[in-house]
Design a protein that fits this description.
- Helices cover 56% and strands 0% of the residues.
- It is an all-alpha fold.
- The N and C termini lie far apart (108 Å).
Length: 438
């Protein structure tokens, strides 16, 4: 063991990468074998001062956790040059040991060491290790039990648990300060949370990743209302996308699950930001809601009708209808958080509430493009039988032929056939519009 002590001291003290540290220390190793191979053999050698046991205790098991982790990391840098049987023997001792026998980073180092082996040489990894990798660290579990945060899913108090004030490893957000994101209600109200979120997004350079991690949409309506009024992400590094990110991380999730009328405070704050940033509202609220996989419901229709009426210029609405009905799938791709993508489809689901929304759009005298009108004519023909007794469909049908008669009269015969399929008191009025006397 004596010849190896200088090497181990050098490796622990060296700031160089693993492979470079080995290369620079090769003169300290016995000349009979490459340093990594020699180190591996020594780590697997039985401990002579301990009584015989089954299985045999090897030198690696007597090292402190930090040195175990460093040794595995050094070996991984030269894994292709090492005996796979010896690698498998060392890594298996770690990964098959009872829980708690080795620290997490030692087990992670053993897994990394096995990654250098061909698949046929790698042993199965215990399921417990895979589950442990995704478990929150103990300090976070303990903090969750004590904290009373504004955002209940973020019990972070980094000043008390991380003296350096730096959290790293959050999906590419290394170096982002989370110490300012202390969310205990007694200390930081929602306005402070908005400021802290802004700072985090700006420092990370990846606002979408921060918002996806923090999940501010889980807050109650009053907190979201304050965040909407104070969270501004239109800064250098995220030009033109900041307002859409605010909307899709705060407004859209609330409205995607809306089953009853939205609270007045939330709706007022949402209308205010949509009025100031209509283009962002188009991408991050209108498109995702209209393309909801389950279709638009009454409460969602009321919200969108207010946004279209109070916040949108007619040209915005014309462009929205054109992209929605005539655009390519790429043009209809909405802005949303990854957690909400599964709720949003690529195609329209026609419901009575969607007819009400288009009826409101037509009543605002929005000019539709020829291709949009053709798509609506085709839709009416295809949906007439399904909604033959629907007054909401009938109202939309009547409004459509009244507002767009000059553009759609070339489709008069097709629309007459569709109107004759319907069975409401509006059927006669629709046919009168389609059969002018002059």
């Amino acid at each position: 063991m004596e010849p190896w002590l200088p090497l181990l001291r050098h490796l622990l003290a060296s700031p160089a990468p693993n492979a470079a540290a080995f290369s620079s220390s090769s003169n300290n190793c016995p000349s009979s074998a490459p340093p990594a191979a020699g180190l591996l053999r020594i780590l697997l050698s039985p401990v002579p001062t301990l009584p015989a046991s089954e299985p045999t205790t090897v030198l690696f098991q007597t090292l402190p956790p930090l040195l175990q982790s460093q040794a595995l990391s050094f070996l991984a840098s030269s894994a292709p040059l090492l005996d796979p049987i010896q690698i498998r023997s060392l890594a298996s001792r770690v990964l098959s040991a009872p829980p708690g026998r080795y620290q997490f980073w030692v087990r992670q180092g053993a897994r990394h060491l096995l990654d250098g082996l061909p698949d046929k040489d790698a042993p199965d990894v215990p399921w417990e290790f895979i589950e442990e990798f995704h478990e929150p660290p103990p300090w976070l579990k303990e903090e969750a039990a004590r904290a009373r945060p504004v955002l209940l899913w973020l019990p972070l108090d980094c000043r008390r648990v991380m003296p350096s004030g730096v959290c790293s490893g959050l999906d590419g957000l290394d170096g982002v300060r989370l110490e300012s994101l202390e969310l205990e209600q007694d200390e930081f109200p929602a306005m402070q949370v908005a400021k802290d979120l802004h700072d985090l997004c700006l420092e990370s350079g990846n606002a979408e990743a921060v918002l996806s991690l923090v999940q501010p949409w889980e807050a109650d309506d009053d907190t979201v209302r304050v965040l909407l009024s104070h969270l501004v992400l239109e800064e250098d590094g995220m030009p033109g996308k900041g307002h859409a990110l605010v909307l899709c991380s705060l407004v859209l999730p609330k409205f995607l699950d809306l089953q009853r009328a939205a609270s007045s405070g939330l709706l007022s704050a949402a209308l205010d930001i949509c009025r100031r940033h209509p283009a962002a509202a188009l991408e991050a609220v209108l498109f995702p809601l209209v393309l909801r996989k389950e279709g638009l419901n009454v409460a969602q229709c009321d919200v969108l009708t207010r946004i279209v009426k109070d916040c949108m210029h007619p040209l915005h609405v014309t462009a929205f209808c054109h992209r929605l009905l005539s655009g390519e799938e790429e043009e209809r791709r909405p802005v949303c958080m990854p957690q909400h993508q599964e709720n949003i489809g690529a195609d329209l689901v026609w419901t009575e509430s969607l007819f009400v929304l288009f009826n409101g759009i037509l009543n605002q005298d929005v000019r539709l493009t020829p291709s949009t009108i053709e798509k609506l004519v085709s839709m009416i023909d295809g949906m007439a039988m399904k909604f033959r007794k629907s007054l909401k469909f009938g109202n939309f049908f009547l409004c459509f032929v009244s507002k767009c008669w000059h553009e759609c009269k070339i489709h008069r015969l097709l629309l007459e056939r569709a109107a004759e399929t319907t069975d409401t008191f509006l059927t006669k009025a629709i046919l009168v519009k389609l059969r002018p006397t002059s």
